[in-house]
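Worked problem 6 (solution included).
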Amino acid sequence: MANRDVFSKILSNVKLATRYDAEGREIQVERREDTDAAAKELDTFDMLVAAGYYRARIKGLSAFDKVVGGMTWCIECCDYDVDVDLLFHENLTIGQKIALVEKIVTVLIDMNCPHTLEPHQVQGLEFLAIHPVIQWLVKTSVANREERGQRLKRFAIGQFHNDYQYKSDKDNLTKIRLAAVNIKTIQELYTPKRQYERKEANSEDDALRVRLTLLEYGETGPMAKQSVETKTASSIETLEPDLEQQLRQLSMVNGDVTVRPKRIDLDPKAKSALQQHYAEFKLEMETDAQELKSHNQQKRLEAAKIALEHKIKRYSKENEQLAMSVETQKQQTTEQEQKLQKLKAELEAFKRTEADADPALLGKVRGLLQQHDELKKGEAEFKESCRTDLANLQQQIDELESFNAQDAEAQAAAIASEQQRLQELRLHLAKRNRGIVAIERKLDAIPDRTELAQYQRRFHELYNEMSAKHLETKQYYTLYNTLNDKKRYLEKELSLLNSICEAYNEGMLSPHGREDFIRQFETIVDGVKSAQDKVRHKYNEERMRRDELNEELLGLLELQRQYAAAIKQLTRECQRCEQLQQHLKSIQK
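Solution. The predicted structure is:
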């Protein structure tokens, strides 16, 4: 307990767990608790439960079983095609856990998981590394399930519409089929037909280009606005030859058209209005662009000016504050220097006096001064305690005087209330004593170290029995599977021989049948050889796996032997160290 108290004062997240070694002796193992890892663990289990893996709520399962089972379930929900057998069971052995975790890590790499995860992190339950992987798997599985649900829904709707139709759908299809002919006729009737075509499309004005396009299809288009200003009169005169030149560029699309082309003659008023509109539009665009550019530049300059003014104001205020703080610091520094000079002078005078005085007398004076200080302190504490006692006594006297000043009924009521309060306190004390007794009984019910050691030995025995029973059951299963495979192969062989006998009698009747029989017999022989090769290949793989496991077992046995030898040597050295310490203590005495 003392060791635990010492470590708890220094490191709040370090706890000492009691364990037992191979020889049954008690040892203490340092175990750290990470609050972030615990929070990630709870968040991981909640995430798996929310995704649909409800086995994470079972308290009897270990954290490793929950994590590995959840990851296996998420990978299966993702429908990812991998050539790995992710068969998961609870309470796996160490070798099975390692193999399963390595397979899961391989599958995650094949699935292009953005987070890296190592097998030892899963075995060590490092939830800071496991949590992002679980989060990505849950998100991927949920998205895949939603996509699969939508796909199945669309497939079901398509299958329904392949065999069945609503009455309203049939009516709509009939109406659409009847109206399609009329709609096509109307579209052909109102389709625009091009009558003229320009030779060169080099106009940069949008309005003029739109006007000429409408003229190509036989439309005169809207007339230009009749607003003429004095500032555009000169530009209209210069644009009139350009417009006439553009109009001359129009030519017939088809020279052999039977319809006589419509001649477009613009009157002078429309032509001048069109030229005026083009000049106004161009002038307005240039003016607006210049005004917008100057306006934006002015706004930027004003914003920069305002920002600079704000900076100047802020810097000036900071400069004033810094100047005031500098002056204050200078004054304080001057005062402190004066005090320091006074203290130095007093210290020099005290040192001179101490050097001139008698050392014995000086020691005696120091003792008397210390005694005087202690007496002063004791006197102050005594006065304070006397004041407190005086205040308490005065309060009691006032209470008694006020109690005596009351009548008999008030005194009786006060006495009754005090008695009731005393009874409540006694009941509270009895309740607290019962709680203490219950806690003591619970503490007595907790097993001690000897009982825990016995429990541990019993659990080891039970585990060994379960392991032996499991091994025996596994052997039975293996024997059953082997005999079942042998039976299946014998049945196949018997059926093959029966079919060969039947085909032989039928095939020997004619030369053509004999050739077919020989061809079928060769096919059967090839199939048997391929099946034999597969079985032999599987047998070789299992034998290689057995050899690898035997080598690993031998390595582990050698490591166990070295561990036992090291423990034995350490025990001898500890005993020798204890003997030397006892001998050293006896010599010192």
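Discussion: The radius of gyration is 52 Å.
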